[in-house]
Amino acid sequence: MIGRPKELEGVLLVDKPTDHTSHDVVARLRRKLQMKRIGHAGTLDPMATGLLIMLVGKATKISQYLISLDKEYEGTIELGKVTDSQDAQGQVMETKPVPPLTEPELRAAMQGFLGDQYQTPPMYSAIKIGGVPLYKSARKGEEVEREPRFIRVSAFDLTRFGLPTFDFRLRCSKGTYVRTIAHDLGQRLGCGANLAALRRTATDRFHVNQALTLDQIEALSLPEIDKRLIPVREAAPSVAL
After folding, report:
1. pTM for the full predicted model
2. What is the pLDDT of residue 2?
């Protein structure tokens, strides 16, 4: 009698493409790996690309540990435009002239976001209030009172200076909305802003350079994918399953 094949188990690092939700990535992996027990440790907005930590099999049990790790991002902010979603995919609500900022002035404004703080989540988010996701209320044109959340920003560096767009690198705690930081920076500068592009480059010690694209994964055999899985004890050595 032939037994059932061993179910895959471990952490798989995926480089998420743009215009994919995190759930889209889960769905594609479920089809490829022929199993349902697959999750992720921290979502990315559809517009964003980069590191998505996928949990396969029993590795789903370490989700909360991995979600709690600090994240690192690279991206582009556009000054002068405010959107309803706080990113480039939203509807433009307001445009303002961009002041003649100097590079030192922009760096100084960015440094003002460093440290411990409270951030109000955007309306276009999956956070549920009264059992209803905020984005559903936002689509109806409703504004719901949100409780500010504690976050920490440990780095917010200017990597390319330009007007009206500039590039940045950000390192922050879990639950930080990067597009809200972009929006709030625009408010402080008096001209508004939105997040034009975002890429998650790292989650703690896991880096996007270690990740595979979905196309690469789908081209591999299941035994080859098994070899790419990070064992649970290696991914979360302090967590006892």
Report:
1. 0.90
2. 46
Where are the chain's structural domains? 10-68+206-235, 71-203
| CA–CA dist 60, 54 (Å, integer) | 8
Compute the C-alpha angle 138/139/140, nearest 5°: 90
* Second CATH level (architecture) for the domain 10-68+206-235: 2-Layer Sandwich (3.30)
Tell me if 86 sits within 8 A of 180, measured CB to CB: yes
Q: Is 45 considered catalytic here?
A: yes
73 pairs with which residues across the strands?
170, 200
- Give per-residue pLDDT as tens, 140-161: 676 777 788 999 999 999 999 9
71-203 in CATH: which number?
3.30.2350.10
The single residue of 15, 19, 24, 45 carrying the catalytic annotation is 45
The structure tokens listed for 64 are: 């909360």
Quickly list DSSP for 126-147.
--EETTEEHHHHHHTT------
